[in-house]
Amino acid sequence: MLEVRWHGRGGQGAKTAAQFLAEAALELGKQIQSFPEYGPERAGAPIRTYTRIDDKPITIHCSVKEPEVVVVIDPTLLNTVDVTEGLKEDGILLVNSAEEPKVIREKLKFNKGKVATVDATKISLETLGIPMPNTPMLGALEKVKPLVSIDKLIDKIKAKFLKKIGEEKTNANIEGIKRAYEETKIG
Asked: What is the DSSP secondary-structure string of 99-166?
């Protein structure tokens, strides 16, 4: 079973990104779980959300304690939350940051697995015109841990967003996913 833990703040789309990933995996015939864990339910409050993907039925129903991948949508959480808690020895830490992976590794004193960075906030500002880094982080995640394919993520974005936000903004989200995939740095 693959387990992903997402760190973000309320309103940044961590829950939506986790759900998109799970639903894309479901369409590939996988078993899935995706659910948030909130503290105070307000915009800007730190949240965790989780995605589980497996080939067989998932029978556990608790938060993810030992993820293979941790995705940090809000880099300010690096100073306040232990985002590497429980991350497997060969795990992947993916951070929305303009900094190089080695800088994040040193800052967190993280000496295992892989560290990857992508400036998803910049990408979302340039593609969407707003700081909404969740969909670019999906592209970055697919780069560091191929799970469902970029095409499957794009199909899911189209299915969810076309009627809701229109073709222009949907295409901007798709561009953000593709750019993040290309611009992700792995160290």
From this structure: S-HHHHHHHHT--SSEEEEE-HHHHHHHHTSS--THHHHHHHHHHHS-SS-HHHHHHHHHHHHHHHHH
The helix (H) or strand (E) run that includes residue 168 is helix 150-183
Three-class SS state of 33: strand
Tokens found for residue 150: 């970029």
**C-alpha span between 68 and 89 (Å, rounded):** 9
Whose CA is closest to 64, among 45, 48, 47? 48
**How do the residues of the chain divide into helix, strand and coil, expressed in percent and rounded to 5?**
40, 20, 35
- Give the span between the Cα atoms of 159 and 144, in whole angstroms: 24
Phi/psi of residue 7, nearest 5 degrees = -115, 130
117 strand-pairing partners: 95, 185
Query: Tell me: the pLDDT tens digits for 77-104?
Result: 999 999 999 999 999 999 999 999 999 9
State whether CATH 3.40.920.10 applies to domain 2-186.
yes
| pTM for this entry | 0.94
Instruction: Pick left, alpha or beta for residue 166 (phi over 0 → left; psi -120 to 50 → alpha; otherwise beta).
Output: left
